Amino acid sequence: MNKKIAVVLLSVCIGGMQAQSLKDKLKSAETKVTGSNSKSGLSNDDIIAGLKEALSTGTNNSTASASKVDGYLKNPAIFIPFPPEAQKVKDELIKLGYKTKVDEFETSLNRAAEQAATSAAPIFLDAVKNMTVTDGLSILQGTDTAATHYLRQSTSAPLTGKYQPIVKDALAKVNATAYWSEIITIYNKIPFVKKQNPDLEAYATSKALNGLFYLVGQEEAKIRKNPAAQVTALLKKVFGSK
Known about the structure:
By secondary structure, the chain is mostly helical. The protein has helices at 3-34, 44-66, 87-95, 99-117, 120-130, 136-140, 146-173, 176-188, 200-225, 233-239.
């Protein structure tokens, strides 16, 4: 074979191999960008529907758990403590022998959160339903609680506005408001102390919602990892293909 012809053929072969290699790399990159869900035929709409269903399932389970007796009180992860900004109040009252009143108040604070949680599900479910999601795949491929984090970012303000009146009513029903008023009155009578009157309703609402978001996140993680928690066909389709 002529040397020039051989060189040309070799160049063509190498060029073809390089082209194929480049094609393979592009295909690999495309797979990474679009994710493995493209193989299973999942559209962005499918994924968004699955994420919302996961959050709805998580919300129902979480509110059921939180609204039980001791749902907040005996769960260290969501227990609501004495308001941190009023820690001096707690410390001084315990020194003066009022530990029982402090304990009664903390118990009532958590009872109020448990009672409010009985009304939380419809508010959360409405927030999930109206949540706008543009890129479901990025959330699906995010952390185990990415959807819960997205829900929190996009709905916290309206959720707080709807939930605070429920918490306020619950605080009154379990006497938390009365315990708080008594504690603050006792403290403010102590000579030379700086008078205190933190916003109990805002504090309780914030902590109660934090607890619910925490539980929803735990439920989301469970659905992502545990096939047994994928209780509907849509959840299996979206999360089972990960």
